[in-house]
Structures are given as structure tokens and as C-alpha cells.
């Protein structure tokens, strides 16, 4: 069952890449990044980690992988980030929030809306943290290399 989910996430990452017109030669990398982020979040959730924290670490992993792929392939990191974060988007939670609002169940709606916003914020903050740390580390390596000359 888990292998089927991994294949489905990989296919979804590739489909998002096609939808956003990512070059064909890079679709596999974008789909890999989607699978990586989803796997990290899924494994952490299965291990008992809070869902928001799991999504944060999943987005940190996909952001770091996107930056590494961007440097290696000399392409913008956005090409690898966009297909990567789509599997982490809290679509079910947003739908449930709207359903609760329509049904007039405002207490659970507020609770689910809070979870939705926290998860979306965790995605954005995780990508921000990973990109910032990667670039700081890269600048540090470059500075150390120029100091020795």
C-alpha cells in the first residue's frame, strides 16, 4: 500500500510539473522532490510527530533538495519547489473547514481552520528556513575559500 502511495505522489509531482510547464528533462527531479517532502512528512506523522511539525520538516527537506538540485543542474530552485510542496498542501483540512461552516458547526470549523493555516504556514516557513540556511552555508563556504587565497 505504501509503495502505491509513493508512486501516486511521484506521478502527481510529475503532473504538476507538466501543468506548470517545467521542462521535460527536469520533471523527474520535480517529482522526486515531491516524493521526498511527502515521505518525510508522512514518516514523521507515522512516528507520532505533530502534523504541523511533520509538514514543516517535509518542506525543509524539499527546500534543501530543491536548492541542491538547482545548484547541480544550474536551474532555478522554483522549478523543483513548486511540484514539491503540492503534496503537503492541506486541501482536505480546507475542505473540512468549509463543510463545517456550511453545516453551522462553528467550533470545529475554527479548529480546522487553525490547523489549515498552521499547516500552510509550516510549508512556507519550512521552505524559507531551508533556502536561507542553504544559502548561508553556501556563502560561508565561498568566503572560507576566498580567505585562504
Automatic annotation (TrEMBL):
It is found in: Cell membrane. The keyword Iron-sulfur does not apply. Belongs to the ThrE exporter (TC 2.A.79) family. It comes from Anaeroselena agilis. The chain crosses the membrane at residues 37-65, 77-95, 115-134. Residues 6-131 form the Threonine/Serine exporter ThrE domain. InterPro entries: ThrE_2, ThrE_Dicarb/AminoAcid_Exp. Pfam families: ThrE_2. Its main location: membrane. The keyword Membrane applies. PANTHER family: SUCCINATE TRANSPORTER SUBUNIT YJJB-RELATED (PTHR34390:SF1), UPF0442 PROTEIN YJJB-RELATED (PTHR34390). It comes from the Bacteria. This is Threonine/serine exporter family protein. Keywords: Cell inner membrane, Cell membrane, Membrane, Transmembrane, Transmembrane helix. It is a multi-pass membrane protein.
Amino acid at each position: 500500500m505504501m509503495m502505491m502511495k509513493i508512486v501516486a505522489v511521484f506521478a502527481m509531482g510529475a503532473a504538476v510539473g507538466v501543468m506548470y510547464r517545467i521542462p521535460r528533462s527536469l520533471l523527474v527531479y520535480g517529482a522526486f522532490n515531491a516524493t521526498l517532502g511527502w515521505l518525510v512528512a508522512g514518516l514523521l506523522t507515522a512516528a507520532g510527530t505533530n502534523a504541523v511539525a511533520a509538514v514543516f520538516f517535509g518542506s525543509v527537506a524539499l527546500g534543501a533538495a530543491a536548492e541542491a538540485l538547482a545548484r547541480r543542474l544550474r536551474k532555478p530552485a522554483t522549478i523543483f519547489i513548486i511540484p514539491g510542496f503540492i503534496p503537503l498542501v492541506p486541501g482536505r483540512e480546507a475542505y473540512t473547514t468549509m463543510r463545517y461552516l456550511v453545516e453551522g458547526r462553528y467550533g470545529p470549523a475554527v479548529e480546522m481552520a487553525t490547523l489549515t493555516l498552521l499547516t500552510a504556514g509550516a510549508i512556507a516557513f519550512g521552505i524559507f528556513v531551508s533556502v536561507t540556511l542553504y544559502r548561508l552555508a553556501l556563502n560561508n563556504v565561498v568566503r572560507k575559500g576566498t580567505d585562504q587565497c
